[in-house]
Structure formats: C-alpha cells, structure tokens
Amino acid sequence: MARPDFDDIFMELAVNLAKRSHCIKKHVGAVLTKETRIISIGYNGPPPGTHNCDEEFPDTGCSRDSKGSCSLALHAEQNAILYAVKNNASVEGSTLYVTLAPCLACARIIFSMGISKVVFMYSYAEYKGLPYDEGLEFLEKFGVQVEKYEQKITYEDTLI
C-alpha cells in the first residue's frame, strides 16, 4: 500500500470539512498546517450561536449583502485562522489548504497573518464569474506561495 502524500491528506480533509458547511450556496473547507501537523480547521458558515442557514432558511439561505454575498457566514479560511488564534496557535509560516481559492478579503487576512503558502482546489473567480482570481493575484504579488491542487478527489452529495 502506497503512503499518501501530506498534500493529499490535508486536501482530502478540507473536502470532508466542506461537507460540514451549513451554506446552501457553496461548501468550502480549509486546513491550516505547519510542516506535517494540523494546527486548525474550518469551513464556511455562520458564527457560533447565530443561524444555520440550511436549517433556518432552507429555501433562500441567509440574507445577502450589497455584493450578493452571504451577510452572515465567515469563509472557511477565516474560521480556520480565527480558531487557531483563539487557541493561541501561531499561524506564521503555515500552509493553508482550501477547497476554493481565497477571495481578496481573505487573501489580505492570510498575508497579514504571515501564512506562507496557500494550496487551493477550485478557482474563486470561476465560481463567482469574475475575470480573474484577485485574491490569488494579491497573495502572489506579496510573496505568498500559491499552488493549485491538481489531484482529483471523489466526493458525493456536496456543493464543493
């Protein structure tokens, strides 16, 4: 039996975490690592103690902001970073595995927190119908290593 690569392990975990999302539009998972250790995980959804969109608003989801995005949910990478910081884990020099490339706002947070590498599965721009991935462009411009995960991961019954 072949030993799996850590990139595969971490991205498969991100895919599985995405299945925990309560969003009715898109499920996204994230894993924050340092070397070969997981320091935090996250998936997109509302802050604890608020609403679970798929349960409270199953037909429409939560309300939208002025740009058409969810007004309530935190992105998967935000949740992973916030959880790490809340638990006093240093994220500087870490690698973030995420099923959807970071948006520009998340990219700013990733850079500001000193995360050194982002491995993503799908394009945020393609999902949103944008001309390019401005989050990835921002990260590359400021020296964060960006890598598209090219392996195929099989999953069922999810909006990843």
Automatic annotation (TrEMBL):
Stored Pfam families: dCMP_cyt_deam_1
CDD domains named in the record: deoxycytidylate_deaminase
Coiled coil: none
Segments forming domain CMP/dCMP-type deaminase: 5-147
Domain of life from the UniProt record: Bacteria
Co-factor requirement: Zn(2+)
Family under the similarity heading: Belongs to the cytidine and deoxycytidylate deaminase family.
PANTHER family xref list: DEOXYCYTIDYLATE DEAMINASE (PTHR11086:SF18), DEOXYCYTIDYLATE DEAMINASE-RELATED (PTHR11086)
Protein name: Cytidine/deoxycytidylate deaminase family protein
Organism this protein belongs to: Echinicola jeungdonensis
